[in-house]
Amino acid sequence: MSAALPLDSTVPENAEVLDDLDSTVEPDGPRFADLGLPTALLRAATDLGFHTPTAIQNRAIPALLDGHDVAGVAQTGTGKTAAFGLPLLAAVDPTERGVQALVLAPTRELAVQVADALSTFAARMPGLRVVPVYGGAPFLPQKAALAAGAQVVVGTPGRIIDHLERRTLTLAGLRFLVLDEADEMLRMGFAEDVDRILTDAPRDRQTALFSATMPPAIRKVAATHLTDPVDISVTRSASTVGTIKQTYAVLPFRAKVDALTRVLETSDGDATIVFVRTKGACDEIGAELIARGISAAAINGDVPQKDREKIIDRLRSGQLDVLVATDVAARGLDVDRIDLVVNFDAPTEPESYVHRIGRTGRAGRQGTALTFFTPREVSRLRGIERATKATLEQVTPPTAADVAAHRATKQLAKAAARLAAGHLDSFRGAVARFTAEHDLSHAELAAVLLAVAAGDDGAPAKAETEPTFDRSATRRADHVDQAGFQREPRRRRTDGPAGPRYRVAVGRDHGVRPAGIVGAITGEGGIAGSDLGRIDIFDSYSTVEISAHLSTTAMHRISAATVSGQKLRLQPDTGPAPAPRGTSRPRRNTVEYQGERRPAGRHDRDGHRDRGSRTGW
Fold first, then answer.
1. Stretch 480-492: mean pLDDT, rounded?
2. 27 falls in which pLDDT band (50, 70, 90)?
3. Alpha-helix residue ranges (DSSP H) falling in 212-253
4. Distance between CA atoms of 119 and 464, rounded to whole angstroms?
5. Quick check: 324 and 276 in contact, CB under 8 A?
6. Which class for 552: exposed (0-12), middle (13-18), buried (19 or more C-beta within 10 A)?
7. Cα R_g (the chain), whole angstroms
8. DSSP string, 422-480
9. Least confident of 252-256, 439-443, 612-616
10. Where are the domains of the chain?
11. Parallel, antiparallel, or unpaired for β 542-546 and 501-504?
12. Which residue did the predictor score with more confidence, 101 or 606?
């Protein structure tokens, strides 16, 4: 365990999963030592650098330690993990092997992170084991971990139900139950599972419910399953968004991808998260950015946990610069080097906006948030400004000329560094000969070389119209559905140049998506996304056209790469060419997406079909 840290230190690496444990409060405020925590837990918290509690911790920890149920309204960034985690551990007896505490989380990412947080807090409690269980992972290892003895279980509702039905988990000895992000569980269709778990758990347990919002459905859960709860409501500290420059741009939907690309190409920041509304958009935007030569990857609810962890590790280490994500997939994501958040799809709720932009401006760094609004969506701006108590600055997305100028500036910076290194005699000779042969001045040659380096081929720039914005405009936009929300035209990744067709050993049966194949081939093969053409996904394999030459070494690297837990095993495809798109009809109860046929209907994060809310949640 690391030594105690000063208050202004960042959380140590082994505790980075604590995400929302911000211990910074006023220096003359309350202290953790005053909350009544057991010595072992107080020392563990101090070891992690937490000396003064946040508002939610200061109010929830004493109430829970006194045995009260708690209904808390708190977002990520307020410190709620410690607020329920420390009292939960205080209620557990490490000498008893049975399950004594259960935390329900809406996503596998949050379940893993909460489990890691609790394990870190329990470092001074020998014999205490925390086990995460969630869908999208093998069942048997989780069964074995539970059989080995676990006092605390953190899991997603669907997988918890699976273990209860198979009798690999029993709640007979449960003392403490937590619902974390209850509103998110409601939104994802877990109402029936959560209601069943709460009903089956012992009545004499202690219960804590935390939710970013408290709609009537959540209040009903609290009234039904909590006993005389202490109501606590806190908001994210204003300083959390105070370190973030908030901007927005108004533009038509069809201009978003070009605008995003130019924003990324002119950004001098370390890393960027791009938020989109749907899983399909996540894959398509991620693939499009890769095709445009941007170091990007996509994560959403369908990305296996192992692949997600690898992507986050690449982002954290600097091997990846741009992450395209849905709201659910980004829950709990904590990477300090993120200094730009782009809301490609404007959030529908102010709370979602605050949660998204909270991914940047961390560890004392300055961050920037940029939100794209279509003309129809501008009405959401007022709600966001009220929620953040800030006025967003309108900006104009960079133009192609701005991108070229930015590239030129970067090349000149490289030139200055190269000049300092010296050893330019042979190049001076080449310049002298070339300028003499072509009757050019040195300044003209330098300008030409800079244009080439900046990617400017001399073609006339396309006329660009700047979008205009009028807050009073109520003009009806294209693609508006009956509910008044703008529909997204179907985004389709344009096919690259035709080339040799290759086969990879992952397909629909493995849950593969086009973006995963694109990312693995470009990342391991060292080729651009624009070198990839048509991708067809079949049951057990997929085919992809690659116009670039692949060396033997590149072939081996791509073959060894894994997507959805399977090695690609790249090899030339010798089968018949796929039929042109549009010549065959999808099977019944399937939808087609870029050559991939998928079962229709919504499913939750654990792979269960979304049953919706049948219990009144």
1. 33
2. very low
3. 216-225, 238-242
4. 55
5. yes
6. exposed
7. 27
8. ---HHHHHHHHHHHHHHT--HHHHHHHHHHHHTT---PPPPP-PPP---TT--PPPSSB
9. 612-616
10. 13-233, 238-398, 401-418+429-453, 501-578
11. antiparallel
12. 101
Specify the DSSP element, H or E, that contains 183: helix 182-187
Q: Tell me how far apart the alpha carbons of residues 319 and 313 are, in angstroms, rounded to a whole number.
A: 8
CA distance 373 to 345: 7
DSSP lists the bridge partners of residue 599 as 590
Domain 238-398: which CATH class? alpha beta
Distance, in Å, from the CA atom of 534 to the CA atom of 544, rounded to the nearest integer, reads 6
d(CA 317, CA 246): 26
Q: CATH number of the domain at 13-233, please?
A: 3.40.50.300
Token pair recorded at residue 4:
């105690």
Sign of CA dihedral 521, 525, 526, 530: negative
CA terminus-to-terminus distance, the chain = 42
* Bridge partners of residue 393, in order along the sequence: 247
Q: What six digits make up the tokens of 447?
A: 């300008």
Residue 203 has pLDDT above 80, yes or no: yes
Cα distance between residue 254 and residue 272, in whole Å:
21
**Residue burial 428-446, b: 16+ Cβ < 10 Å; e: rest:** eeebeeeeeeeeeeeeeee
DSSP-assigned beta bridge partners for residue 155: 104, 133
SS3 content of the chain, % helix, strand, coil (to 5): 40, 15, 45
pLDDT tens, 389-404? 889 999 999 988 888 8
Beta carbons within 10 angstroms of residue 565's beta carbon: 13
The runs of H, that is alpha helices, within 48-107 are: 55-65, 80-90
Common-topology check for domains 13-233 and 238-398? yes
Q: What is the pLDDT of residues 99-124, one digit of tens each?
A: 999 999 988 878 888 898 899 899 88
141-155, 322-336, 575-589 — which is least confidently predicted? 575-589
Confidence of residue 236 (pLDDT cuts 50, 70, 90): low
Q: At the fourth CATH level, which superfamily is domain 501-578?
A: RRM (RNA recognition motif) domain (3.30.70.330)
CA atoms within 13 A on the CB side of 164: 20
319: Cα within 13 Å, side-chain hemisphere: 9
Please, are residues 130 and 183 in contact by the beta-carbon 8 Å criterion?
Answer: no
331 close to 308: Cβ distance less than 8 angstroms:
no
Q: How confident is the model at residue 584 (pLDDT cuts 50, 70, 90)?
A: very low
pLDDT for res 600: 37
Gap between the Cα atoms of 202 and 175, Å rounded = 8
Cα distance between residue 583 and residue 572, in whole Å: 24
Is the per-residue pLDDT at 598 higher than 80?
A: no
What is the token pair recorded at 26? 């006023």
pLDDT at position 420: 83
Q: What's 539's DSSP letter?
A: S
pLDDT tens digits for 333-369? Answer: 778 789 999 999 998 777 678 878 888 876 567 889 9
